[in-house]
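Researcher: Let's do a round of design. I'm pasting the structure tokens now; please hold your answer until I've finished.
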């Protein structure tokens, strides 16, 4: 079966500074893949390259066999227009570390704006879907509030509802709990766990090792812009083969 996501030999550099060094990853439909590793290992850049928030220096991204952010012209790969790129991104939801909500829009406004502007839904249909997704994340009673009146955990759940309303095939989570106070982390993890149980295809960059162990089909350990080790949670977390993986996990345990 063709993978839902195929990342082929991805490189990213800023001048002489290499961030990603030939990352290749396949993700099957419905698979939950967590990416762990030290800060600066390229995890966030990897996610941002998947939907072309960062343009890869080289390498290619495919969703259901379709090139993302590029097309072939006379046998050569060229970047697509911003309009075409926006269409490609509809397939890929992105939950950011710091929520990225519009402060001047209500909770419902934040969840509906992309539906009307990108998907072309009517305001009525967008609001109906938006309310449904906010109920799903436990915030149906907050539709008229503004982001500044919400806790960090609530803001992140609004951001997840916004992604769900776009009905993407793949959801990317970039350290979705790292900007939250410790007592608020659980409410976001509960929503993510629910999505995993529904069979969503998810790629999750996280420092929440126990959470990754519980919900992931596969764990990838990255360091210095490369995949060092990957496998089942039991294999990578309990019986790591690479010395660098063992060192990282030992430091995590000592915290």
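Researcher: That's everything. Go ahead.
Model: Designed sequence:
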């Amino acid at each position: 079966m063709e993978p839902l996501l195929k990342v082929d030999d991805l490189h990213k550099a800023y001048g002489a500074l290499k961030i990603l060094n030939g990352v290749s990853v396949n993700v099957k439909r419905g698979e939950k893949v967590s990416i762990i590793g030290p800060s600066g290992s390229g995890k966030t850049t990897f996610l941002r390259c998947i939907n072309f928030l960062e343009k890869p220096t080289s390498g290619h991204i495919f969703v259901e066999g379709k090139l993302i952010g590029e097309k072939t012209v006379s046998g050569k790969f060229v970047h697509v227009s911003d309009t075409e790129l926006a269409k490609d991104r509809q397939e890929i939801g992105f939950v950011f570390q710091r929520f990225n909500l519009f402060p001047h829009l209500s909770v419902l406004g934040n969840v509906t704006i992309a539906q009307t502007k990108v998907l072309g839904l009517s305001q009525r249909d967008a609001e109906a879907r938006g309310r449904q997704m906010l109920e799903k994340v436990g915030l149906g009673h907050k539709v008229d509030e503004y982001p500044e009146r919400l806790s960090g955990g609530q803001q992140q759940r609004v951001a997840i509802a916004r992604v769900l309303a776009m009905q993407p095939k793949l959801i990317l989570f970039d350290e979705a709990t790292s900007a939250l106070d410790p007592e608020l982390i659980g409410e976001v993890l509960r929503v993510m766990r629910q999505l995993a149980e529904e069979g969503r295809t998810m790629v999750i960059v996280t420092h929440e090792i126990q959470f990754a162990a519980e919900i992931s089909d596969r764990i990838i350990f990255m360091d210095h812009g490369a995949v060092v080790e990957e496998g089942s949670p039991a294999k990578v977390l309990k019986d790591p083969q690479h010395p660098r993986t063992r060192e990282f996990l030992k430091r995590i345990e000592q915290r």
